[in-house]
Design goal:
The protein is α/β, with parallel strands linked by helices. Helices cover 27% and strands 20% of the residues.
Length: 302
């Protein structure tokens, strides 16, 4: 038979040790999402790291973060840096426009004329909203203070600029939407919300898009990464259930609310994932399991 391991001296946590972590100069950009997560999960927003954190923003993870992150920090770093994303996609053969990481601008100026069959753009690696992105040609000058390596990517020009998005959480993909410029507005080559593009519902996602999105999320370590068990244990009592002494016994609320919008659906998936982790744990593949041998740190055979 299996019994729960005793862990002498191990600190026990409660919901007060959890937070939506949103601090630093860029926290304003995530303020509304932080409020939504805080309200739904019943945990506070904090500018300082607590024991267990849903990380949204910090100026410096290296110096400002202590504790544990519900989303793996390695996955956050990969998703936040186009250089790391490009390398991860190449390792996992994720289909993308042709992308090269070049160490010097001399390499860039040699590469572009050697590949005249395509247009090329230079992407700023850690920005958002297409900030810093630019088309480059044979006469382009080197931008000052640009992080290395240079991210050079094939630019695919469309008659009507648009990009598509799928959301993912807890191993689920949902929320197929298109980002386009409203009719009557002057479009930018960069289809960013900060440039005036807006989201539109796009119907059902094509299977090819689902396959590529799945591969991309797996490459970044994000598809089924929501599995910090102790975080789940700590917040379960405030997320649709009540916990036993160790936080593993759930009494889910019924019926489940509906989440028609992508942002709300993300929160719903987060909650369902927490419930699954709290009641059954995670298997080797990241999905719920009831097998105690999967948790040698929690159980032992006697």
């Amino acid at each position: 038979m299996w019994v729960r391991r005793e862990t002498p001296g191990k600190m026990k946590f409660d919901p007060d040790d959890c937070c939506v972590l949103n601090g630093g100069d860029g926290a304003w950009a995530f303020a509304s999402l932080a409020e939504q997560l805080s309200s739904t999960l019943g945990i506070p927003i904090s500018e300082r790291a607590q024991g267990f954190n849903y990380v949204l923003h910090l100026d410096s993870i290296e110096t400002d973060f202590a504790g544990e992150s519900f989303i793996p920090l390695s996955a956050i770093r990969t998703a936040a840096d186009k250089r790391q994303t490009a390398a991860a996609f190449a390792r996992h053969s994720v289909p993308t426009p042709r992308t090269r990481l070049l160490e010097s601008f001399d390499e860039v100026t040699r590469f572009v004329p050697a590949n005249p069959q395509s247009e090329w753009c230079l992407k700023y690696p850690t920005g958002c909203g297409a900030n810093g992105h630019r088309l480059i040609g044979t006469d382009s000058g080197e931008p000052p203070n640009w992080p290395r390596p240079f991210v050079v990517q094939e630019f695919i020009r469309l008659e009507r600029p648009e990009v598509y998005r799928l959301y993912g959480a807890g191993g689920e993909l949902f929320g197929w939407v298109a980002r386009r410029f409203p009719e009557g507005t002057h479009p930018s080559p960069w289809v960013a919300h900060a440039r005036g593009a807006r989201y539109e519902l796009a119907g059902d996602a094509p299977q090819q898009a689902i396959d590529v999105a799945t591969a991309a999320l797996q490459a970044a370590g994000l598809l089924a990464s929501f599995g910090l068990r102790r975080f789940a244990q700590a917040v379960l009592r405030r997320v649709g259930g009540t916990g036993s002494g160790d936080g593993w016994n759930l009494q889910p609320r019924r019926p489940r609310p509906q989440y028609p919008e992508p942002g709300e659906r993300l929160v719903g998936s987060y909650r369902r994932c927490l419930s699954a982790v709290g009641s059954r744990g995670l298997s080797r593949k990241g999905w719920p399991t009831t097998e105690p041998e999967h948790y040698p740190h929690l159980f032992q055979r006697v």
